[in-house]
Write a structure and sequence with these properties.
The chain is α/β, with parallel strands linked by helices. The protein contains 10 helices and 23 strands. It is globular. The protein starts with 9 loop residues before the first helix and ends in a 24-residue tail after the last helix.
């Protein structure tokens, strides 16, 4: 990448060119009151001050340094000069270790940082992963692929189809487990999608993310990836799970059921919690501990069944005071096939939209009810408005998470032909998405610092 392509213009570009500096070179910027030395980085081209150069300091942080006519820029060292030999491990398989397929979808967890430029690149091969997390070679023989490079907020149902197909291929090649690095924003939604798309699993499939990028001292990437790999290769389970930090410190990893987990914090390393159930496994320095029974056990004679299709004509809406019946009407008019309502309390919706819900059901839209409450389950038989919704044909989703209900309805509409089949299946647990009961103690929550 040239200096111009990297966002430098005007005086700053001229000073850098006069110093014969390129991205990744070590430069010295001499100021009136001191000097700054570091690696020359690309500069953001949108919304950034054009009079600054971006430097990566030796401590790993990037700073912007204002350049004016009195500032002197000099080249200290060209990129790569004096570089130490790589300690990268090779992909030679170690006899006796299990094999894991690591299929990256674009999350930072399976990325590597180029400290010359600061760029974060996907780990394309086993060598890249070993270089990023050298401890992996002690846990498994890795086959690594980049399936896609998508910010997790941009994930689309068609991407789930692609990911599921790649997972099935690796399992049929004999992988002892599959790990899917993925961005955390929609990690729980994609884990639910994989749970429905990958039927009759013989080995575990573990989705994993990272709250802190791998170039930060507080990164959770390495431990999360190691824990996910251990669980995928060695846990006596055969279902889709999500593995992340169990507390803020680097002490243990928890593996959650893929259909029963939610991101509950924007930035904490232990952001993910099992909802209305317990995690399945814990991984720490002592190994893997089973916390609750998995849906099925590891059985390599079992043949995976791939059902990767999802119908994206399904919508999830949250009720709120003042919601207009026009929202439901627009969904009907747009020919959507499914509607998941995130209602209040035990599964209620404002009476002003009941007529629109009835219109949707009469038009053939399948309408399901979940709750905005994180803990507990819907019970639409308690109060009259709930009973009225039941009588219209609204499907109660028990203790299913709203996003899981959305994914399930997408999946059912793509794989079932009869409306009655879809309606019945929404009330039945297929991959552990519905609990048989909700404990009164469930949802006490986690205190800060635990």
């Amino acid at each position: 990448m040239s200096l111009q392509d990297s966002g430098y213009r005007g005086l700053v570009l001229r000073k850098l060119e006069e110093a014969n500096a390129q991205l990744g070179d070590r430069i010295r910027i001499s100021l009136k009151d001191g000097e700054v030395t570091g690696i020359l980085m690309p500069r953001a081209q949108i919304g950034a001050d054009p009079d600054h150069a971006v430097i990566k300091m030796d401590n790993g942080y990037n700073i912007g340094v204002r350049i004016d006519a009195q500032v002197t820029v000099s080249l200290v060292q060209k990129a790569g000069a004096g570089k130490r030999p790589s300690s990268r491990a090779t992909a030679v398989e170690t006899p006796g270790l299990p094999s894991v397929a690591i299929l990256s979808t674009g999350g930072t967890i399976a990325s590597r940082v180029d400290y010359r430029t600061g760029a974060v690149n996907p780990a394309l091969t086993a060598e890249d992963l070993y270089d990023t997390v050298p401890e992996l070679k002690e846990h498994a023989n890795v086959r690594a692929k980049v399936i896609m490079s998508v910010l997790s907020e941009n994930i689309h149902p068609k991407d789930w189809t692609t990911i599921a197909g790649a997972v099935a291929s690796e399992i049929r090649r004999g992988a002892d487990g599959v790990v899917i690095p993925h961005g955390t924003d929609t990690l729980g939604v994609s884990s639910a999608a994989m749970a429905f798309a990958l039927q009759e699993l013989p080995v575990p499939v573990v989705l994993v993310g990272s709250q802190r990028s791998s170039d930060r001292p507080s990164s959770d990437a390495a431990l999360n990836l190691i824990g996910a790999t251990e669980i995928a290769c060695k846990a006596n389970a055969a279902e889709v799970m999500l593995a992340m930090h169990g507390e803020p410190s680097d002490s243990f990893i928890l593996a959650h059921r893929g259909t029963r987990v939610r991101k509950c914090h924007t930035s904490r390393r232990d952001a993910f919690q099992s909802v209305n159930c317990s995690p399945i496994f814990r991984y720490d320095s002592a190994g893997i501990t089973e916390i609750s029974s998995p849906i099925s056990r590891r059985d390599t004679t079992r043949k995976i069944r791939l059902k990767p299709d999802f119908d994206d004509k399904v919508v999830l809406i949250k009720t709120y005071p003042g919601i207009s019946e026009g929202m439901i009407d627009m969904i009907v008019d747009a020919k959507y096939r499914g509607l998941v309502i995130e209602g209040t309390g035990l599964g209620h919706a404002p009476e002003r939209i009941h007529s629109s819900i009835r219109r949707a059901i009469d038009a053939g839209v399948i309408v399901a009810m979940t709750s905005q409450c994180i803990w507990g389950r819907v019970n639409m038989n308690v109060y009259r408005p709930g009973v009225e919704l039941l009588q219209m044909g609204v499907i109660p989703c028990e203790d299913m998470l709203p996003e899981t209900a959305l994914v399930k309805l997408m999946w059912l509409l793509a794989n079932k032909t009869e409306t009655d089949e879809v309606t019945t299946a929404m009330t039945q647990s297929i991959v552990g998405e519905i609990g048989t009961r909700t404990e009164l103690s469930a949802g006490a929550g986690r205190k800060e610092g635990e």
